[in-house]
Automatic annotation (TrEMBL):
<dbReference type="Pfam" id="PF13410">
    <property type="entry name" value="GST_C_2"/>
</dbReference>
<dbReference type="InterPro" id="IPR010987">
    <property type="entry name" value="Glutathione-S-Trfase_C-like"/>
</dbReference>
<dbReference type="GO" id="GO:0006749">
    <property type="term" value="P:glutathione metabolic process"/>
</dbReference>
<dbReference type="GO" id="GO:0005829">
    <property type="term" value="C:cytosol"/>
</dbReference>
<dbReference type="InterPro" id="IPR036282">
    <property type="entry name" value="Glutathione-S-Trfase_C_sf"/>
</dbReference>
<dbReference type="InterPro" id="IPR004045">
    <property type="entry name" value="Glutathione_S-Trfase_N"/>
</dbReference>
<comment type="similarity">
    <text>Belongs to the GST superfamily. Tau family.</text>
</comment>
<keyword id="KW-0808">Transferase</keyword>
<dbReference type="InterPro" id="IPR045074">
    <property type="entry name" value="GST_C_Tau"/>
</dbReference>
<feature type="domain" description="GST C-terminal">
    <location>
        <begin position="91"/>
        <end position="222"/>
    </location>
</feature>
<dbReference type="InterPro" id="IPR040079">
    <property type="entry name" value="Glutathione_S-Trfase"/>
</dbReference>
<dbReference type="InterPro" id="IPR045073">
    <property type="entry name" value="Omega/Tau-like"/>
</dbReference>
<dbReference type="GO" id="GO:0004364">
    <property type="term" value="F:glutathione transferase activity"/>
</dbReference>
<feature type="domain" description="GST N-terminal">
    <location>
        <begin position="6"/>
        <end position="85"/>
    </location>
</feature>
<comment type="function">
    <text>Is involved in the conjugation of reduced glutathione to a wide number of exogenous and endogenous hydrophobic electrophiles.</text>
</comment>
<dbReference type="InterPro" id="IPR036249">
    <property type="entry name" value="Thioredoxin-like_sf"/>
</dbReference>
<dbReference type="GO" id="GO:0005737">
    <property type="term" value="C:cytoplasm"/>
</dbReference>
Length: 229
């Protein structure tokens, strides 16, 4: 594997889609690394020292130097371990478009589905679901724009935007398990539905998939902390 001789550590949480995103990128680029699971309810000294600004995962520690924020880490991994297919498009416009939609996922989609999880009432949850579906509808358009009719946002193989969105798919399943809501549906977004099935069957998608039971338990703990049952 590339990076075999490097000192690479990843501070993460199996429940964090952002940490999952980085693990997928490392796997896609064939980077060997030591994974250090973090207790996000009782944060350790290494995490606090490595990310003193936000105190959150993921943090990639390469040769003793920390890199924070998942999208920045994915770009770092792509540049440092440059062998094989790039995770970002070759042309500047394609890279700009991929970065725009990846930021959209984090700024709009993540808080949208998190709102479903945190909703205190069925009425509130229905409103949050409608808002999330509107956000996802635009991702259907982004897939058509970026993929050029191929299997993934990046074309023939998984790339930057595939990872940005794909790391959320496990939480979509957890929300369906808990509340019976469906965020990506073949009737509303057929392109995304087919993409999600393909993505989940890739090695990167399968290797780091969090266990559903643990995800649901974690989600219920988060709801209990917020005063919801």
């Amino acid at each position: 594997m590339a990076g075999e001789g490097d000192d690479v550590k990843l501070l993460g949480s199996v429940m964090s889609p952002f940490a999952v995103r980085v693990r997928m990128a490392l796997h896609a680029k064939g980077v060997s690394y030591e994974y250090l699971e973090q207790d996000l309810f009782h944060k350790g000294d290494l995490l606090l020292a490595s990310n003193p600004v936000h105190n959150k995962v993921p943090v990639l520690i390469h040769a003793g130097r920390p890199v924070c924020e998942s999208l920045a880490i994915v770009e770092y991994v792509n540049e440092v371990w440059a062998d094989g297919a790039s995770l970002l498009p070759a042309d500047p416009y394609g890279r700009a478009v991929a970065r725009f939609w990846a930021a959209y996922v984090d700024d709009k989609l993540f808080p949208a589905w998190l709102g479903i999880l945190r909703a205190a009432t069925e009425e509130d949850r229905a409103e949050k679901l409608d808002a999330a579906l509107a956000v996802i509808g635009l991702m259907e358009d982004a897939l058509a724009q970026c993929s050029d009719g191929k299997d993934f946002f990046a074309g023939d193989s998984v790339g930057y935007l595939d990872l940005a969105l794909g790391c959320n798919l496990f939480w979509f399943k957890a929300l369906r398990e808990m509340f019976g809501v469906t965020l990506i549906d073949a009737g509303r977004t057929p392109g995304l539905a087919a993409w999600a099935e393909r993505f989940e069957q890739t090695e990167a998608g399968k290797e780091v998939a969090p266990p559903m039971k643990s995800m649901v338990e974690h989600a219920r703990k988060l709801r209990a902390m917020a005063g919801n049952n």
